[in-house]
Amino acid sequence: MGGHALSSPEAASPEAASPEAASSEAASPEAGWQVSVCVYCASRPVDERYVHLAGEVGASIAKRGWTLVSGGGRVSMMGEVARSARSGGARTVGVIPRELVDREVADTEADELLVVDTMRERKGLMDAHATAFLALPGGIGTCEELFEVWTSRYIGMHDKPVVILDPDGHYRGLLDWVRELVGSGFASQRSLDALTVVTDVEAALDACAG
């Protein structure tokens, strides 16, 4: 791959950090843009099988000629999905808070690395650069990111695919709880219908293609 860029969000687009930008026509495949998958996953040390899963996802994104959007870290699953995508020839865009850059965990090999001041800015730019969202096994941060794009799809703020790749039941408890919310009236079946849950990599990317 060629060189990489380290820049502030202003260098991307003036509206990029807004939630509305994430659902704009310019970010949709129908408008002629390449598929760009925003992958949410762990950045903490985890079992090697999850790191391998992230690598599979990155390689498969590259095989399809797509772009990867990530949280801009170079460690654990987050780092592996980006490295594998680049190894296969994919373009990678990372969005990372300045504090994490200062801790030297930034994916400085990203084709475009956007540095922001807050987590809200980070999520806004990741949304704006993506045409689909894919959650791999992760922790609280991954769940928070997932719930935001899931909720915004459910209420009609965007129509981009929101997909969970869960090969071993990592999210089973969470999804069972949401089904309980539906049963008790705190959530609707339509909210569950806004989410796609699959168990293998290719099915996940097929769902991301819309």
Automatic annotation (TrEMBL):
Source domain of life: Bacteria
GO biological process terms on file: cytokinin biosynthetic process
GO cellular component, as recorded: cytosol
Pfam families for this protein: Lysine_decarbox (PF03641)
Swiss-Prot/TrEMBL catalytic activity: N(6)-(dimethylallyl)adenosine 5'-phosphate + H2O = N(6)-dimethylallyladenine + D-ribose 5-phosphate; 9-ribosyl-trans-zeatin 5'-phosphate + H2O = trans-zeatin + D-ribose 5-phosphate
Biased composition (Low complexity): 7-27
Keyword line: Cytokinin biosynthesis, Hydrolase
GO molecular function, one term: hydrolase activity, hydrolyzing N-glycosyl compounds
Entries under InterPro entries matching the protein: LOG (IPR005269), LOG_fam (IPR031100)
Top-rank EC class of the record's enzyme: hydrolase
Enzyme Commission identifier(s): 3.2.2.n1
Region spans: Disordered: 1-27
Family affiliation: Belongs to the LOG family.
NCBIfam families assigned: Rossman fold protein, TIGR00730 family
Protein name listed in UniProt: Cytokinin riboside 5'-monophosphate phosphoribohydrolase
Annotated organism of origin: Haloactinomyces albus
